[in-house]
Design a protein that fits this description.
Helix content: 10-25%
Largest sheet: 7 strands, antiparallel
Number of domains: 4
CATH superfamily of the largest domain: FAD/NAD(P)-binding domain
Oligomer: single chain
CATH architecture of the largest domain: 3-Layer(bba) Sandwich
Number of strands: 43
Bound molecules: flavin-adenine dinucleotide
Distance between the termini: 84 Å
CATH topology of the largest domain: FAD/NAD(P)-binding domain
Length: 754
């Protein structure tokens, strides 16, 4: 059993025998059904327990504390009413405290922000006392700590240092052995960095603040990994990532699709990695300045989020893969951060119809919504089960501080989800039950640490060459904004987004991100990988997808080997050893060294991962007479998903967009000769498609039924004709809006009418 974060402190030696006992909720021996929330440690100083039961009270959390002396004990609980920032009625997160099986009369979580709520006085015998947190609602009650005292005048600890004193944490934080590379954050970028470095023979510590790896790509958040790997200048980059990347069919989907165990196994398989789950980096200790006079990190302090113990992890090099750029900020690295107008945070969710209707309470504290105030949740396309999703676009906080307001943003998302779900039940689906809501928010943008190069969207679109270009970024410049249609009711904090895709990224080969975006310009032994690298807000739109983030990690892991063996900094690697680094990027992902100085070798039997890429084997547009415009050449905006699973497509795949979205795909064909041309369109028919998809051919609307197969055996359907002059262009636009199902875009084909 883990030691409790408890101290009973005797204040007075003699007759009064006054004492204080502090119990941190995260240190409870059993969390029962409560979730350990570590997302807001920077805001409120500690992890806490969250009763995230989706409206059903969760099982009790339990602890034992030693009462030094029989008598009257005053009880306080550090908690909050989480809807109080909006003065919403009803206090959703109520819970009770039981001591030795007896319920205290006070109900907790009923008012105000984080504070010590008095719980009255209890008579306790000396010896072990059983404490239990008893959830009353299942609606995200929260408990940070419990304080007991038999001193009539004592008050609960006001500051974190008071709490540290009460917990008896040592003055001197113990230090670990020295690692070659300390990787902070265990999402795709951190995992890529740790594995790549370990395969180079480096001694690596991987610190991750959650019980699972994968970051946004874990089962806790359920974002599926996108971005093309194994292509461009260094086609072996990405092979490591593909060893553990998910192949989820839906986002959000099923817990198992996100492969937490597979990810952990990939890390544990590397003997060079010491994995520290549930460790949150809270401080960076400066070392002596480097020869160039810049800052250096000597160690990072990590809090064990369950026991409260702290350890300093010493390292030669550090990699900030926290997403938030937290290590860089702690070490004094320069960064940019948009406080308004940034990408938001999502708590995705799912619901299902239920055979046995379950009750759903009134939620007056949730956002009060009507059906038109939010998009319909939809069935996922690729699964037969009825699985309804609140997807990525349940996103808010665009104008809230991306760090200081993070808990508010998560709670606003919860209010939106519960409000929408209540409306769904009331108006359309009385049998619905809420099957999953992410308690851990998915964040997209906060600090962008500055490197020697700050990559811009212009660099990417204009394909500016950098000598150190490496990781291929293939995703469009995907920026999010509040969706106007749903922003009317809560214009101060809209909770539904739309994606705007800037074009110009080479989706096939990828644009090579320079290595100099992957280390800090002013902390000399700090790398970064993932969404906190040195790019502008606009460029983040493409580099932030997880397979791309993972490849940044691979590059960092390899560069760390060069830095360690050549006794230099990440910058020194660029300045003096770039060719050597490039040689490492050319090596297969499976190559490894038996030890630091031994040569790289590919273990016998290692094979590069087989990646289900967009199939190359579609119908070659050049094989068709006339003019063909593939979906890959169309100007697309809105939430299109690319795919190639259904056979018979033109080019390398097709794309589809959900019902109710504002997606459009505009195909423009320039016709070489004047006269009349027949316009044909191709899609893959499916039961979930729109029967009334709108296509505009040179300003004239046509409706097509995409559930039915096209009338031609080659899969094309004639949708009209146009008469043009030689060299004139014709535009054909497919629109999802107003359709009664998914719309599907593959290609258009124009043939001259004889
Ligand atoms: C709703 C949503 C939808 C998205 N859609 C897609 C998509 O379809 N496909 C795609 O590929 N990408 C998508 N993205 C973007 C992508 O998820 C992120 O950009 C990506 O996860 C960033 O990777 P990362 O490794 O930098 O950070 P993360 O995935 O956030 O991983 C960082 C990890 O570090 C941990 N950590 C943070 N601070 C500390 C600390 N102080 N100490 C220790 N550990 C710490 C975090 O808990 C986390 O587990 C989406 C994002 C969101 C939120």
């Amino acid at each position: 059993m883990k030691p409790l974060r408890i101290l009973s402190l005797l204040l007075l030696p003699a007759a009064a025998r006054a004492a204080e006992i502090l119990v941190e909720a995260e240190s409870f021996a059993s969390h029962g059904g409560w979730t350990l929330d570590t997302q807001f440690i920077e805001i409120m100083g500690s992890p806490y327990l969250l009763a995230h039961g989706l409206g059903r009270p969760v099982a009790d959390a339990a602890a034992k504390v030693r009462i030094p002396e029989a008598g009257q004990w005053r009880v306080f609980v550090r908690t909050k009413d989480w809807v109080s920032p909006w003065q919403a009625p009803g206090a959703p997160g109520k819970f009770s405290l039981l001591i030795n099986g007896k319920v205290l009369p006070e109900t907790f979580g009923t008012s105000g922000g984080w504070h010590w709520q008095p719980g009255g006085t209890v008579e306790l015998p000396a010896g072990d006392a059983a404490i239990a947190l008893h959830d009353l609602t299942g609606f995200d009650g929260r408990c940070d700590a419990i304080y007991l005292t038999n001193d009539a005048n004592a008050v609960p600890p006001a500051t974190l240092s008071d709490r540290r004193r009460l917990l008896g944490l040592p003055e001197q934080t113990p230090e670990s052995e020295e690692y070659d590379l300390v990787v902070c954050g265990g999402g795709y970028s951190g995992m890529g960095a740790a594995i790549a470095a370990a395969r180079q023979g480096l001694k690596v510590a991987l610190l991750q603040n959650r019980p699972v790896l994968g970051g946004n790509g874990s089962s806790e958040i359920q974002v599926w990994a996108q971005g093309g790997t194994m292509r461009g200048l260094y086609p072996h980059l990405g092979e490591i990532i593909e060893e553990f990347a998910d192949h989820a069919a839906n986002s959000p989907g099923e817990v198992d699709e996100y492969g937490d165990a597979r990810k952990e196994a990939a890390i544990r398989a590397e003997s060079g990695i010491a994995l520290f789950l549930n460790h949150h980096v809270i401080a960076a200790v400066q070392g002596d300045a480097s020869l160039s006079g810049h800052r250096m990190i000597r160690s990072v302090t990590a809090l064990d989020t369950r026991s409260g113990r702290e350890v300093r992890f010493r390292g030669k090099l550090f990699a900030d893969c926290t997403g938030h750029g937290s290590v860089g900020a702690l070490a004094g690295a320069s960064f940019t951060m948009l406080e308004k107008g940034h990408l938001g945070m999502s708590n995705m969710w799912s619901w299902q119809p239920s055979a046995t209707p379950s009750p759903w309470p009134d939620t007056p504290w949730a956002l009060q919504l009507e059906p038109g105030d939010f998009p319909p949740t939809r069935k996922a396309e690729k699964t037969a089960s009825l699985f309804h999703k609140g997807e990525w676009f349940w996103e808010s906080g665009f104008d809230r501080h991306p760090l200081n307001d993070l808990e508010l943003t998560r709670d606003w998302n919860l209010r939106a989800v519960y409000g929408a779900f209540g409306t769904l039940r009331r108006t359309a689906n009385p049998d619905a039950h809420l099957s999953w809501v992410a308690a851990i928010g998915g964040t997209r943008e906060s600090r962008l640490l500055q490197g020697d190069v700050v990559l811009t969207d212009r660099d990417i679109v204009e394909k500016r060459p950098f000598p150190d270009g490496c990781v291929p970024t293939t995703w469009d410049l995907d920026l999010h904004y509040p969706k106007e249609q749903y922003a009317k009711k809560f214009p101060d904090n809209p909770f539904i987004s739309r994606a705007q895709f800037g074009k110009g990224v080479d989706r096939e080969n990828g644009y090579p991100i320079p290595y100099r975006c992957l280390y800090s310009k002013d902390v000399d032994n700090l790398f970064m990988a993932g969404r906190c690298i040195s790019v502008t807000h606009e460029a983040l739109g493409t580099v932030r997808v997880m397979r791309t983030c993972g490849m940044m990690g691979e590059v960092v892991g390899k560069a760390a080997w060069v830095a360690v063996t050549r006794g230099t900094t990440p910058r020194g690697v660029y300045q003096s050893h770039l060719d050597e680094l490039k040689e490492l990027w050319r090596q297969p992902g499976g190559a490894r060294r038996a030890s630091l100085r031994e040569p790289l070798a590919v273990p016998p039997g290692w094979k590069p991962p087989v990646v289900a890429k967009r199939a190359a084997g579609g119908l070659d547009p050049k094989s068709l007479p006339g003019v063909v415009v593939d979906d890959s050449q169309a100007a697309c905006s809105g939430p299109w998903t690319e795919a190639s699973g259904l056979p018979g497509f033109v080019g390398k795949g097709y794309r589809y967009a959900p019902q109710g979205s504002d997606a459009t795909a505009r195909f423009v064909a320039t016709l070489p000769t004047g006269g009349t041309w027949e316009v044909r369109m191709k899609w893959a028919p499916h039961a979930n498609r729109a029967t009334n998809a709108r296509v505009t051919v040179s300003g004239r609307d046509v409706r097509i039924n995409q559930r039915k197969a096209a009338d031609r055996p080659d899969g094309f359907q004639s949708i009209g004709s146009v008469t043009v002059k030689a060299g004139e262009s014709v535009s054909v636009t497919l629109t999802a809006e107003g359709g009664d199902g998914f719309v599907h875009a593959d290609a258009i084909w124009l043939v001259p009418v004889p």
